[in-house]
TrEMBL record:
One of its GO terms (biological process) is rRNA processing. Its cofactor is Mg(2+). One of its GO terms (cellular component) is cytoplasm. Its EC number is 3.1.26.-. It holds the Pfam family RNase_E_G. Residues 38-100 form the S1 motif domain. This is Ribonuclease G. Signal peptide: none annotated. The gene is rng. The lineage of its organism: Bacteria, Bacillati, Bacillota, Clostridia, Peptostreptococcales. It comes from Peptostreptococcus anaerobius. Keywords: Hydrolase, Magnesium, Metal-binding, RNA-binding. It is an enzyme of class 3 (hydrolase). One of its GO terms (molecular function) is RNA nuclease activity.
Length: 460
């Protein structure tokens, strides 16, 4: 039975999913004010690129968004447009926008202007498709896998909410001539909760949840209210699973940070003995398989075969947990039997079949390395915790990770020592003064938020 642990810090909100003591999923949502995917904006065309069949749109942000247009588009400079963020890259200051507006529910996605319903490929039962189609109030829906397990009244209720929310967006766009955010995207953490748990726990469509553990700090109750309100829309019974802590570092108290630390380690040991080494670079990911303490059976070839199969299953888990993408090269222990080599490809393919990302196992290279490619969605989860040192290209602790560490130590000062006048040089004792100067300069916005949240004064 799974447990959800939610950490709500000033810099980010995180959700860790634990199953029998193992960390099986991790969601990280930055709390910065930058534009997020699925945000809906009122924008104004500021530049048209006829040769590219595209334009740049001012949405009131620091950077303009790129909007792809069709050949028949009549948009011109100065026109107001209703757009939704498709891709958001803060680091490279790039935004991709879309004229197609969608609102996502647990079983349905409302897409304004859609001519006919689109069903998930996982809904293969024609009777289920007919049932759902008959109760949809309009054809403007993408029907998600979960919909086949939902009751008619729940689907009707959700459709009504989505259409009402969509109409509210249209009304707001028409009434106000300003540009800017009209509707923020749903919290990634809450969206994950909605997609993975619920009262309709059948056919593997939902996680069976024991508890949802989270904490509130000081007098802040915003997330507590949002979480309770959202769960209530799914099922009031889920409120009984909430376990609210007060002023508690959830990830530290329940060992989540220790498990995340293992994700950052290059070496991954399996219980049976074999281990793998994972090297991440800008261009690709390299995974090396070793027998370790695994002594196997009577002959060498059988031992190597078993070690590689154990490693292959762990490699799948690490690809998904670490969110590895791009080119992945796996160096298995040398094998003579082609059928065994092919069986490793089968293990990888089967394990990654649950992946929402596009992937392909290309086979073995001339050097005997198994080549895998996996599409990039955004930065890897591990990139939240690590950066690359431009001087020597080694991996170092990221600024996001440092900000979280500051908040953890501020909590210790406030809740355990009752110290409300804090100096960074005292709590970041492993850093040099020149580094603390740079950290303080780079994190001033987040430090001010900590001062408000914990009612403290933080100096260099």
């Amino acid at each position: 039975m799974k447990r959800y642990y939610i950490e709500d810090f000033v810099n980010s909100r995180k959700l860790a999913v634990m199953d029998d003591g193992d960390l099986v999923d991790l969601v990280i949502e930055k709390n910065d004010a930058f534009v997020r995917i699925k945000d809906i904006y009122a924008g104004r065309v500021e530049r048209v690129l006829p040769g590219m069949e595209a334009c740049f749109v001012d949405i009131g942000s620091d950077i303009s968004g790129y909007l792809k247009l069709g050949q028949s588009s009549t948009l011109k400079v100065g026109d107001r447009v209703l757009v939704q963020v498709k891709k958001s890259d803060k680091e490279n200051k790039r935004l991709s926008l879309d004229l197609e507006i969608s609102l996502t529910g647990r079983g349905l996605v409302y897409i304004g202007g859609l001519k006919k319903p689109v069903f998930s490929k996982s809904i293969k039962d024609s009777s289920q498709r007919s049932r759902i189609r008959s109760i949809l109030p309009s054809p403007e829906y993408l029907v998600r896998t979960r919909a086949q397990y939902m009751l008619d009244q729940d689907l009707i209720k959700e459709a009504g909410i989505l259409e009402r929310d969509y109409q509210d967006v249209l009304d707001s766009f028409k009434k106000n001539r300003r540009i800017g955010l009209l509707r923020p995207a749903q919290s990634m953490v809450l969206e994950y909760v909605g997609d993975n748990i619920g009262a309709d726990q059948d056919e593997g469509s939902s996680d069976e949840i024991d508890r949802i553990v989270y904490s509130v700090y000081g007098i802040e109750e915003d997330f507590n209210k949002d979480l309770r309100a959202y769960l209530k829309t799914i099922s009031s019974d889920l409120l009984l699973k909430l376990d609210k802590k007060k002023n508690t570092d959830i990830f530290e108290a329940y060992g989540i940070n220790t498990r995340i630390g293992r994700l950052l380690s290059k070496r991954v040991d399996t219980e049976q003995g074999p281990y793998i080494i994972i090297d991440r670079t800008e261009a690709l990911n390299i995974i090396d398989v070793n027998t370790g303490s695994f002594v196997g059976y009577s002959d060498y070839e059988t031992t190597v075969t078993m070690a590689n199969k154990i490693a292959a299953k762990e490699i799948v888990r690490q690809i998904l947990m670490r969110d590895l993408s791009g080119i992945i090269l796996v160096d298995f222990i040398d094998m003579k039997d082609k059928s065994v080599r092919d069986s490793l490809i089968d293990i990888i393919n089967q394990g990654l079949s649950v992946d929402e990302r596009k992937f392909k196992v290309h086979g073995y290279t001339r050097l005997g390395l198994l080549e895998i490619s996996r599409s990039r969605k955004s930065k890897s989860i591990l990139d939240y915790y690590e950066d690359i040192d431009p001087k020597n290209l080694s991996r170092i602790k990221s600024l996001d990770s440092v900000i979280d560490e500051i908040e953890r130590r501020v909590q210790i000062e406030v809740y355990h020592k009752q110290n409300y006048d804090i100096k960074l040089c005292d709590i970041l004792y492993e850093y040099r003064l020149v580094e603390i100067e740079e950290i303080f300069k780079s994190c001033q916005g987040m430090i001010k938020k900590m001062e408000v949240r914990y009612n403290v004064n933080i100096e260099k």
